[in-house]
Each structure stands twice: as structure tokens, then as C-alpha cells.
Amino acid sequence: MEQNFTFFNKWVLKNVGIDLNNYKERQMQRRITNIMNSAGAKTVEDYARILEKDRDAYNAFVKHITINVTDFFRNKEIFEIFENCFMQNVVPKFDHIKIWSAACSTGAEPYSLAMILNKNNVRNTNILATDIDETILARARKGQYTKAELTNVSPADLLKYFNELGPDKYVAKNEIKKYVSFEKQDLLGTQYPHNMQVIVCRNVTIYFKLEARDEVYRKFSEALSQGGLLFTGATETINEPSKFNLEKVDTFIYRKI
Predict the structure, then answer these.
(1) Which residue of 12, 125, 132, 239 has the fewest C-beta atoms within 10 A of its own C-beta?
(2) Given a cut of 90, is residue 231 above it in pLDDT?
(3) What is the SS3 assignment for the chain?
(4) Each residue of 159-174: b (16+ CB within 10 Å) or e?
């Protein structure tokens, strides 16, 4: 059955506040169809009515389309390159360092950054972590994770930065929580923060259409201080960084010029 995605996109924009027209069409329509079928709806019109009445279904829909996939120190080798670049290029240059973890999902990324700050004794630093999904932000604030989610965290860091709550359950200690504040934000809608020294946004823009992706990179550049770093994902490459006033420093790391 052919679905009226034009109707559904308008409904989502009005009722959820997410503009699905900025996302790659086939990927997003596939995701919508999958979760719609799981909810027992045959048409997007039926599914919209379900979402209007059922808060659990609504929350599940938002979580599904916002693609919350993340790990601590995701692509560990690349994260190590970023840490070295950060310590060499950012720490000596700025007295106060503001880091933005954009589309932070469950909080694994900003807490990974907090561990880097703590281990290197970097002072006068704070991390703003944002995501579009309120439910996932609530989980990030709690900072609870399974052992599988902490695979890339060394045994020493696991002991230092997490408390074991029970079988296969750990919670982040204040040693790293104190660095991070969480806020709701839509990369394709709301205003960006300013005067950031580091922006980390990894494996997110691959889901956006080219025009939306370029707009995000332009706004990231505007949000960075001169000399600040943008750290992207292992699936993302900025082909012409100069048009965003960026220069490539290392693999998936760019500097504002």
C-alpha cells in the first residue's frame, strides 16, 4: 500500500516538532514503515491517530526516528587521535573551554569527553550535551549503562568513573557527571550555542539530505571560536571544508580558520 508520507511529515512537524523533509527520504520512510507496522497500523493516518492517543507509542516513535546509536569512545582509535589533537591544539590556546556534544543520545559521548578532561586535569571546562529526544536525555542524565555499553572503557576507568549497581548495571560517578549539562535541541531547527571551543557531532549528518547537512556544518562553524575543533564521525567526511571556514587537521577532525 502506498503511504501518504506528505501528510505524515506535516503531522510530525506540527505535533512533534521534527522536520522529516530534511532527512534522507528512503531511509526515513523505511524507519517509519517499520515502527508503524509494529504498532499495528496499516496507514500513516492510522498511525498518527495512535500517536495522538498513546504516549508510550509516541515516545517509542520519537526514539526510533532519532536513531540513538552510540558507544563510549566510539571508534576508539579515532577518539585517541581526537584526544591528542585536543590537548595539543585547544588546551594551550583557551583559558576556558566549552565543549558541545551535539546529538548526544544516551550520554556515552559527553561522558567519554568528561573522562578525557578528568584524566588530563583540564580545568575551567564544561560540556553542553544536547539531543532532540527528551526520553533519551532523561536516561543520559541518570548515567546508567550495561557492561556491553562500556566495552571500550578500560577496567581502571570503569573502577574510577563508575559505580556498580548490580549485575550488569553501572552508573557514572560525579567525577564525570559534574562536567556535563544536558539540554533538548534540534540540530535542524533550534538556535545553536556560540563561542564553543570544541563541537563533537558524530555519525548524525549521514542521515540528512545534502542541503540540511551543509547547513548544519555552516552553523557548527559559526558556533566555533577561531581555532576551535569540530570532531565528526567515522562515516562522515566534509569534502570542501574551506567553504565552511574549516580546515582538516586529522582524520574526521577540522579546525575553524
Answers:
(1) 239
(2) yes
(3) CCCCHHHHHHHHHHHCCCCHHHECHHHHHHHHHHHHHHCCCCCHHHHHHHHHHCHHHHHHHHHHHCCCCCCCCCCHHHHHHHHHHHHHHCCCCCCCEEEEEECCCCCHHHHHHHHHHHHCCCCCEEEEEEECCHHHHHHHHHCEECCHHHCCCCHHHHHHHEEEEECCEEEECHHHHCCEEEEECCCCCCCCCCCEEEEECCCCHHHECHHHHHHHHHHHHHHEEEEEEEECCCCCCCCCHHHHCEEEEECCEEEEC
(4) eebbeeeeeeebebee
Question: Which pTM was predicted?
Answer: 0.80
CA distance 1 to 160: 54
Nearest to 200 by CA among 113, 115, 95, 118: 113
